């Protein structure tokens, strides 16, 4: 079905839905065409067969993402085909509880790690059957968003059923302005509109941020539109906290206070060993340990701590590497609780996986101020999540002394890749693997830095082995709240030969 929509300037936009999906025409007479002739507009917007658009995904063998694995055109064509199917056929959530569709992440991660076609097809088939079907666009909603976002968006933000409407809106925006300009407007500028969207990127344990990371990393306008739409249908549950921290930071800056430089891992280690109210802010009984625990019981202390987590422009690249390294360290170190089998924490791995977003931000259209603002928000979010998981013990000995007895013949983390690529879940495992690999690579540029914890290849290999021991052959692969003793009571035991000499610390 199709419908003609009127833009603010009176130009006509033809919107079309393909079947049940929220897809629009490949070429749209965009809004704000001004005095341009029809031919000029058509030429400007006409996509070519070898061009990714806001509705068409196109992955090439040369574009394998940050890890830069080798791929061939046949595999590139297959991942493009599967990604397009997912994009057209499925909703962003696969159930009424807002659980996320991970197919895009899974396929691009496998592809970006050099996996073959067989792995891509198996991963897709394992996850396609339970997805929610795409639903039709409500064209009247798209019209309202186009006419006046500021006045009308609040009627639909945070509502999952409006995902196709926001997707259609962002597709039209990208058709008109280009994906770079749309990201600038809705994420990287410092306006009330962009502030609302980038705060929502951290909702749903950072799933919108992770989705945007893949779109930006592979420069796929369709995935960028999907990520912005995904952010739009999440509640801005952290917005009040972020706003209060921003206000406190602004007050400090106006007073001329010195910008502190606090290392993330040291901050978490100090909270763990302190008598700060933050140490026990979250409790096992909390239905949501972040909101019902940390932000309900210790909001003042959390704001004070978050205000101290700052980034100066001269340190931007190093603080980005530190943030990624910190999340790798926290995820690995907190996964050990002898005599239980190591288990990475489900919430903490999302902080780790979302960290890769920041490796794709060094682009001309992204202002340094926008990169700094988002990085500071991410650092604050990471510390909140650590506290919400019960402030698990962090020390390198838990990694170095863990005797998992898996893949002892491996000399490098990449030696484990074929094994990981054949563990088929919903994509979380290989995403963690890729994040660890990129964390190691990025950290190597800052060897000897004070924030460094995993300092050699054996440390990183151990982190991968611990992950493998916890997921291989296991139905339940993650722990939820690794800092709480109660979370571990039903976890499987290590064999006698595997038990670490390191004692757990409750």
From TrEMBL:
Q: Which domain of life is it from?
A: Eukaryota
Name of the protein this chain belongs to: HypA-like protein
Q: Pfam families annotated for this entry? A: Questin_oxidase
Polar residues bias spans: 1-15
**Annotated stretches, region: Disordered:** 1-21
Is this entry keyworded Mitochondrion?
Answer: no
The organism encoding this protein is Claviceps arundinis
Could you tell me the keywords of this UniProt record? Oxidoreductase
InterPro entries per UniProt: Questin_oxidase-like
The Swiss-Prot or TrEMBL record annotates one GO molecular function as: oxidoreductase activity
């Amino acid at each position: 079905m199709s419908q003609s929509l009127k833009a603010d300037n009176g130009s006509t936009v033809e919107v079309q839905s393909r079947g049940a999906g929220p897809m629009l025409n490949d070429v749209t007479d965009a809004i704000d065409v001004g005095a341009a002739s029809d031919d000029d507009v058509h030429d400007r917007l006409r996509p070519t067969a070898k061009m990714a658009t806001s509705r068409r995904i196109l992955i090439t063998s040369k574009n394998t993402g940050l890890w830069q694995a080798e791929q061939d055109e046949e595999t590139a064509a297959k991942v493009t085909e599967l990604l397009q199917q997912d994009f057209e056929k499925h909703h962003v959530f696969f159930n009424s509880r807002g659980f996320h569709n991970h197919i895009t992440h899974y396929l691009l991660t496998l592809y970006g790690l050099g996996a073959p076609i067989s792995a891509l097809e198996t991963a897709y088939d394992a996850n396609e059957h339970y997805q929610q079907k795409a639903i039709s666009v409500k064209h009247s909603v798209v019209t309202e968003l186009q006419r006046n976002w500021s006045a009308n968006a609040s009627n639909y933000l945070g509502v999952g059923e409006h995902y196709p409407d926001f997707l259609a809106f962002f597709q039209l925006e990208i058709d008109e302005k280009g994906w770079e300009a749309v990201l600038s407007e809705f994420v990287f500028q410092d306006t009330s509109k962009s502030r609302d969207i980038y705060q929502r990127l951290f909702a749903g344990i950072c799933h919108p941020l992770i989705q945007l990371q893949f779109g930006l990393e592979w420069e796929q306008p369709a995935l960028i539109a999907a990520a912005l739409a995904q952010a739009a249908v999440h509640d801005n549950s952290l917005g009040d906290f972020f706003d209060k921290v921003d206000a406190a930071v602004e007050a400090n800056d106006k007073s001329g206070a010195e910008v502190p430089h606090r290392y993330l891992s040291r901050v978490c280690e100090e909270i763990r060993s302190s008598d700060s109210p933050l140490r026990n802010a979250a409790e096992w009984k909390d239905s949501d340990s972040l909101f019902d625990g940390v932000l309900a019981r210790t909001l003042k202390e959390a704001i004070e701590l978050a205000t101290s987590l700052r980034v100066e422009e001269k340190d931007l690249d190093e603080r980005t590497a530190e943030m990624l390294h910190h999340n790798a360290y926290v995820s690995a170190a907190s996964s050990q609780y002898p005599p239980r089998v190591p288990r990475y924490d489900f919430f903490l791995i999302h902080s780790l996986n979302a960290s890769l977003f920041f490796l794709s931000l060094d682009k001309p259209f992204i202002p340094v101020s926008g990169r700094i603002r988002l990085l500071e928000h991410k650092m604050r979010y990471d510390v909140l999540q650590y506290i919400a998981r019960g402030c698990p013990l962090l020390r390198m000995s838990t990694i170095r002394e863990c005797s998992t007895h898996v893949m002892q013949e491996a000399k490098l983390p990449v030696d484990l890749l074929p094994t990981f690529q054949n563990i088929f879940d919903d994509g979380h495992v290989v995403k963690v693997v890729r994040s660890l690999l990129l964390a190691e690579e990025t950290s190597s540029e800052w060897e000897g830095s004070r924030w460094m914890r995993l300092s050699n290849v054996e440390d990183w290999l151990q982190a991968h082995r611990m992950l493998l021991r916890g997921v291989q052959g296991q139905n339940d692969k993650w722990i939820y709240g690794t800092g709480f003793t109660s979370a571990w009571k039903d976890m499987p035991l290590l064999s006698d030969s595997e038990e670490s000499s390191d004692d757990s610390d409750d």
